[in-house]
Amino acid sequence: MDFDFSWLLLSLPVAFVLGWLASRFDLRQLKLDNRQAPKAYFRGLNFLLNEQQDQAIDAFIEAVQNDPDTQELHFALGNLFRRRGEYQRAVRVHEHLLGRGDLSRADRERAQHALAQDFLRAGLLDRAEAALQKLEGTRYENESRLALLAIYERSREWAQAAAVAQKLDEADQASFTTRRAHHLCEQAADQLAAGDTLAADALLQQAVALAPEAPRPAIDSAVLLLRNGAAGEAFDVLAALSERAPLALPIYAATLQQAAVGAQRTGEALALLQRGYEQTPSIDVLEAIIALGGMPALPDDASTGTVPEPRDGYIAHLAHQPSLVAASRWLASETFAHEQFHPQVQRALDQATRPLMRYRCAACGFEAHQYFWHCPGCQAWDSYPPRRVEEL
């Protein structure tokens, strides 16, 4: 039987028409899908610009559902969740991105960084630490190290903090020398609390060698020397520090006075303290001078014509600057006509001056009666001026 080619000729146009119709249908559907995704995206962007975050999230979720392969939509959605405090949802978005096998290296590093930020904002420090450590060797390396340093300092893991600070120092992004010295001093304080004075001394010597201009290593070393009975060595350390860091004298004036008494070098200490007081009058330096039996020079109009007593140093201080603290200290040993009311008046003055004797962080304003090298409020280093609130 012969094959009829007429059917073949008729079927070719029919197949062509059907193929064309199918392609047109697919293209129309693809255009519709692509049209819907940008509309949702731009609608979400408009909501975001108008600070309508709830509506923006709904629009971005719709866009992600229409185009699940778009990384930028996932990042935008995750960042929105984090900003709203919905950290669990932000984590799910970024973990979903990391689970994709087709993600580029740059986007994978970006997703890992975003995930670490989610954990940090949520306060999940252990998980944040693990996520940040995976960023070593990436473009986010220095940023992740800074975040790790903050975590270790906040949790008082000083050995780990010192290791990270050393890496940052070696990267030449900024100088972390003084901060590393603080870490060594903190480790020394922990060793002292455990009763290991030898280990504490070794750590403090490292801190002094690392940051010879920083006041804390020298002050902590002098305190340890004084504790071990080496008052003369402690005095020498603080006397040398007074040349390098004269503005920090109020912090260690009391320790210097104790070392001078122990080493029987009160004359040297008085000369040093008075020289520092003349440059920057301070109630702490004044009281160290008074404790050694000295006093600043009285102004002519404050002279009583009698032999001045050490407590008259408070009057001399009032000539330099008005001070409720100095006035209260002077009045404490003064005799009045109605002496029976003196204790009540003195208690009221002491209560009024107590807030003035605090130290205040220059970064966050946190106040404390104790001087802190590391602010408990904002975690900043060296943010406390060495002067009391009244003297600022």
UniProtKB/TrEMBL annotation:
Major location category of this protein: membrane
Keyword Iron part of the UniProt annotation: yes
Pfam families xrefs: Zn_ribbon_LapB (PF18073)
A GO cellular component annotation in the UniProt record: cytoplasmic side of plasma membrane
Topology term for the membrane: Single-pass membrane protein
Domain of life the protein comes from: Bacteria
Positions of the LapB rubredoxin metal binding domain: 359-383
GO BP term (any one): regulation of lipid biosynthetic process
Binding site for Fe cation: 361, 364, 375, 378
Record topological domains on the Cytoplasmic side: 24-392
Record's keyword terms, sorted: Cell inner membrane, Cell membrane, Iron, Membrane, Metal-binding, Repeat, TPR repeat, Transmembrane, Transmembrane helix
Subcellular location: Cell inner membrane
Family: Belongs to the LapB family.
Protein name: Lipopolysaccharide assembly protein B
Organism: Variovorax guangxiensis
